[in-house]
Input
Amino acid sequence: MTVKFPAAPQLVAIIGLLLFSVFAVADDNRPFNVEITEIHESTYGVRWRVPPTATANNNPQVELPDTCKILDPRDKQRTISTAKQTTGRAIYRCQSSLSGQTIAIKYDRDNPSISSLIRYQALTGERHSRVLSPDQGEWQIPDKEATSQVAQEYTLLGIQHILGGTDHLLFIVCLLWIAGNSRRILITITGFTVAHSITLILSALNLVAVPIPPVEASIALSIAILASEIVKGRKHSLTWRYPISVSSAFGLLHGFGFAAALSEIGLPQTELVTGLLFFNIGVEIGQILFASSIIFLVYTAKRMLTLWPQRSSLLRHSRALVGYGTGSIASFWMIQRCAGFL
Output
């Protein structure tokens, strides 16, 4: 039996806007970035970047094990603050390697819902990364790279990236709307998956290089284009008749966006293929989880609205609501991102 998704696709509008009304302005919700690099044996350079969401009297701090001592106490005050972020750096001398030891992130008061992205690079070139949620304040650096550890680590990073990328998720919502039924959804999402996997791999392996700021602006533009198609509702257009063509074309673009995120995290030195493969798998898992959640919520809402007297009126106006709402958010992102590099 073919399941229609949904018989009244306008319900995607309600679900999509409810989900993204909270996140529409969250595009700047960047994490606290920490880079720890072994520059000499047991000597580490630590750099950090504080996002604008942290206040001046509640900045996060990086704490290394007690066996590590800062070489120049003045480094604690060597920070640069701008309107957008605060950056700083310090050099530590440790009694032994940091491998297997615990790094802590602490705030003067409480964590104001800020995630932390910690990147660690050993003198051998071995790299590890971890994203800590706001309720996590510690990370134990792995002893050494192992295939199972890298697979687990990069799968989680992929899931976290896609579920935290509101622009990619909003694009998927638009694809689900246009696809309509289960068969077309499967084909459309597959096209998007294959396409962005290709450019993700090519870019991560440095086989293809493109400037990231224009790519991010183009991703926002791709959402605006789909939103305009939803508003027009012209079922005879190329987008509506062959959604896989559009999802594949734009998927190539989104793959460069995924690669940009992966370049910030960094690939493991000795398990590069494993890290790349499982990051991509994590992205797909997150994508499936999100799409499945949307489908479940739509069918639940559809059943709940069956006996609602104003149901037909709501469905009649929801297409414009989602189209214009999504298009406005995407247009704002596009202008904001273009302003960053023009």
